[in-house]
TrEMBL record:
Domain of life of the source: Bacteria
Domain called FAD dependent oxidoreductase: residue spans: 17-343
The name this protein goes by in its record: Glycerol-3-phosphate dehydrogenase
Essential cofactor(s): FAD
Pfam family name, one: DAO_C
Native organism taxonomy: Bacteria, Pseudomonadati, Bacteroidota, Cytophagia, Cytophagales
Keyword Flavoprotein listed: yes
Length: 530
């Protein structure tokens, strides 16, 4: 999968059935769903795939413990249904890409017996709602069992804990795996392709879109029967481009995260802080040999490059220090990032983003027939895609929808995946177990394909940075097979190094730039195999 091939495909297709704007989780899901239904699909993104909200999540696949609490307290059937749907989808996401996901144990410390009883009942209800899609049984832990599970927990006033399970994912790579599967099945996909302006017919319906290739600065025009706006927080921009009379619908919620060394909590169990002083849920999560702490939930102004605010680091650290025995200082932070979540705002609702349900809505503009999918969350990306395509069939094409089959579609790298195959990589390619296991978790059954690049170029087995298991062959693979264009594409999204260790990523930039330099040639894995 490379940009030259994709550009060639675009020029060879007279009209697409669907042109999807936005290469995050939702747009990727729509592209895969539509391609599985036999539609001719084009997916574009202004920058890199998964470049915004999708890669800046808390890396959780979950039903929403907080939403369940609100559903019970307010007797809110919509909140309950959202939790139910999300728990079903949690199971689907894990099964469809086992190399990029895992069940995650989460421990909630309790500091009174009443709190312990309350949380045990709530999490048992959470488990009951999951039903056959459950991934682990919740249980009450004594103080001794809690400290055995997470020895670093603050002991003072601890009475007990409750353990339950949700899922964890490598969000940027999961999105890429969806796109790669869609492309392998026939979709055309292009990153760094910016939507500039629509063309309309005499009735005002969208017929074509002018796109700017932000790599070459060339423009091209594509024809499509339907245009789908899947740009998340930026949905209002595309809606206005299609119809200037449309009123804004989106609210933006800001989620900040910090990353800490794994030495601060040496286990695979996360901590759920069930309620912060300002009414939020916060997590301290083992993640890729580090600890991920987040998230905040504040209304924010839309931005393409949100940075951590000065007050967010002490806020997040204060909860780490409230729940861990050892005090953690800002100097120990290895990285941090902030993302913006798309929330559907309505005039009659409060402006408090914590109170907005993160469900989704498919809007079809009667004038232009632009389809906009708005709201939602990572865990329900596949349902959002299904609803969007179903609406296109029913409302625009006035047809019975072709059956959606994405629920049982293994993603790129999941076919034939067995984690134990890392041992074969060690013996066949003479790499360390650490590197082999890392590659299995990033590329699944394609890990050997990455290593095959080093067959006649042994230097590609060398580490990118001495403190991390990434090897130079991954840079080549990201450029050749995953449409990486910039150093940030490679370091932040294809590898994820920048999000866990900002200093190591900075020290690796010159190496990545050398691989990206014009005229740099590689021996491709296809040539090796041939």
């Amino acid at each position: 999968m490379n940009r030259i091939e994709q550009l060639s495909k675009i020029s060879s297709i007279e009209q697409f059935d669907l042109c999807i704007i936005g290469g995050g989780a939702t747009g990727a899901g729509i592209a895969l769903d539509a391609t599985l239904r036999g539609l001719k699909v084009l997916l574009i993104d202004k920058a890199d795939f998964a470049g915004q909200t999708t890669s800046k999540s808390t890396k959780l696949i979950h039903g929403g413990v907080r939403y369940l609490e609100q559903a019970v307290k307010k007797l809110d059937w919509e909140q309950y249904k959202m939790v139910q749907k999300s728990l079903h989808e949690r199971d689907t996401l894990i099964k469809n890409a086992p190399h990029l996901t895992r069940p995650l144990a989460l421990l909630t410390p309790c500091y009174s017996w009443i709190e312990g009883i309350y949380l045990t009942i709530g999490l048992k209800l959470y488990e009951w709602i999951a039903g056959n899609h459950g991934i682990g049984a919740s249980k009450w832990l004594s103080r001794k069992e809690a400290l055995k599970t997470i020895p670093e927990l603050k002991k003072e006033n601890l009475t007990s804990a409750v353990l339950y399970y949700d899922g964890q994912l490598d969000d940027a790579r999961y999105c890429l795996a969806i796109i790669q599967k869609a492309e392998a099945l026939g979709a055309t996909v292009l990153n760094y392709a910016e939507a500039l302006r629509f063309e309309k017919d005499n009735e005002g319906k969208l017929t074509a879109l002018t796109i700017k290739d932000n790599v070459s600065n060339n423009t091209l025009t594509v024809q499509a029967k339907v245009f789908i706006n899947a740009t998340g927080p930026f949905a209002d921009h595309i809606r206005k481009m299609a119809n200037t009379k449309l009123k804004p619908r989106m609210k933006v919620s800001r989620g900040a995260h910090i990353v800490l060394p794994t030495s601060l909590m040496k286990n695979e169990t996360a901590i759920l802080v069930p309620k912060t002083d300002d009414g939020r849920v916060l997590f301290i999560i083992p993640w890729q040999d580090h600890l991920l702490v987040g998230t905040t939930d504040e209304e924010d102004k839309l931005s393409e490059n949100p940075d951590l605010e000065p007050d967010e680091i002490p806020y997040l650290l204060s909860y780490v220090n409230r729940y861990l025995e050892k005090d953690v200082t800002p100097e120990e932070i290895t990285s941090g990032f902030a993302g913006q979540r798309p929330l559907l705002g309505k005039a009659e609702k409060s402006s408090d983003t914590k109170s907005l349900v993160r469900d989704h809505e498919v809007e079809i503009d009667k004038s232009s027939q632009l389809v906009s999918i708005m709201g939602g969350k990572w865990t329900t990306y596949r349902l959002m895609a299904k609803d969007t395509i179903d609406h296109v069939y029913e409302t625009i094409w006035h047809k019975e929808p072709v059956l959606c089959t994405s629920e049982h579609q293994l993603l790129h790298g999941a076919e034939g995946y067995h984690f134990e195959d890392w041992q074969q990589l060690v013996s066949q390619y003479h790499v360390s177990p650490t590197i082999a296991q890392h590659l299995m978790k990033k590329y699944g059954s394609l890990a050997a394909t990455v290593l095959s690049l080093a067959k006649n170029q042994s230097e590609l087995k060398e580490l990118i940075h001495p403190n991390h298991p990434f090897i130079q062959a991954e840079i080549v693979y990201a450029i050749q097979e995953e449409m990486a264009v910039t150093t940030q594409d490679v370091l932040n999204r294809r590898l994820g190094l920048g999000l866990r260790d900002a200093q190591a990523a900075k020290e690796s930039e010159s190496l990545v730039e050398a691989f990206l330099s014009p005229g740099k040639t590689f021996i491709s894995h296809q040539n090796i195999e041939n």
